[in-house]
Specification:
single chain, mainly alpha, Arc Repressor Mutant, subunit A, globular, 7% strand
């Protein structure tokens, strides 16, 4: 691998980690884990109900991690589990009154900051950024699945996800 590619990949991975650290640090300062943060983020940013399975699939967390975070959020009265209509024993995770208040004071300001930061890009820049990011992820998945069967995203996911 060329030195330039190595440096670019290292820079890209540091940027991923820096962004991840921004969210982790924010969550910790608000007194919640990063998993709890992303669950509240998902619930706060959508009016649609979410099952635990949907949260696992959408946010790429193992089922046990989501379950543990939901249990803690339930104990803190931020979420409640409600039976999903026509879905047998499946339950949806919903914000409680306290959860809505927490989201309004702690999660929504971050969502607003994300939006303001993203809007600093022009529309074409936003579209290009998203397109390139999606393309890079797709290429990486393809390379892992093609060249490293034991490290394929499906194998990795089935070992750690829902």
């Amino acid at each position: 691998m060329s030195k330039n590619i190595e440096e670019q990949l290292a820079a890209l991975n540091r940027l991923y980690k820096e962004q991840d650290d921004l969210y982790r640090t924010y969550a910790v300062k608000k007194g919640i884990s990063v998993t709890e943060f992303w669950i509240l983020y998902a619930l706060c940013s959508s009016d649609d109900p979410h099952s635990q399975q949907e949260l696992c699939d959408t946010w790429f967390y193992p089922k046990q991690t989501i379950n543990s975070a939901i249990n803690k959020l339930t104990r803190n009265d931020y979420v409640a589990l409600k039976p999903a209509a026509g879905a047998g024993n499946r339950k949806n995770v919903q914000l409680t009154k306290a959860g809505k208040a927490f989201c309004q004071s702690h999660i929504e300001p971050l969502i607003n900051a994300e939006e303001a930061a993203f809007l600093r890009f022009g529309e074409e820049e936003r579209n290009t950024y998203l397109s390139l990011f999606q393309k890079q992820i797709a290429y990486l998945k393809d390379e892992i699945e093609t060249n490293n069967k034991e490290l394929s995203s499906e194998n990795l996911r089935s070992q750690s996800q829902c």
